[in-house]
Amino acid sequence: MLYSIQSKPENYNTVRLNIDIPWKCEFVKYYVSSINTKANILMTTEDDYLIFETNNGEILIEFEEMYNYSYSYLVNYLNSNQKIGDANAKIIEFKNINNRTISLKPNQSITFKEGSHRAKLITGLFNTKKGYVFPNGIECNVPDLPILDFANKLYLVSLQGIAAHSTIGDQEYTPSIIANIDTMILDQEALIVSYDMAKPIKIKVNTDSLKYLEMRLVDFMFQPVILKSPLFITLKIKPSTNADVYDVLTK
Fold first, then answer.
1. Which of 5, 204, 237, 246 has its Cβ near the most Cβ atoms within 10 Å?
2. pTM for this predicted structure
């Protein structure tokens, strides 16, 4: 049985479907056969922010809706959009280091307080713990390389997928992965993945548990991406005569 599903405009990164299994069997196998979309993925929105603490108050950097960043644009933006309260501030000097990373040099000691996931991702602060101190007058690179695109790794996760233990930084995740997307992800370009000729993740489940399926596109840290183009997924389902609890993944 073949299902072709399209996400809806209110949330293009998620597909939902009700499934009517026609066979009288206790178990079924299924897998994602293909994924198709256009890589219109927002790197930041107006909800994204960074906050640093200083002796004079909190420095707030708010972001805008952007699909892609260059290192030069990002550095200029960070230097021009620092606020303490309602007033513009210039406490931190950011620099572009060989289009590979960025550095920051505060004119007083600052402490990283918090930030949204996407803001931390593009600035290389995604593994930085709350309370990390950047000392006065010392130029230092951000702890991790900024991620200004999604490189070559996305996941499709679902409630019925396979729980895979993963550790990223000091965070542990057990996402239910239904498909890996290991291909170049280029802004505005087509993102097409076919699993029929490869080795898809095949899942064996009780038939009654597959009456409803929800799948979501997430980044390498298992956080939802904001997709602005329809997501098309092809799902293949077939009956299974039995299921072994030690053989949920099938060949």
1. 237
2. 0.86
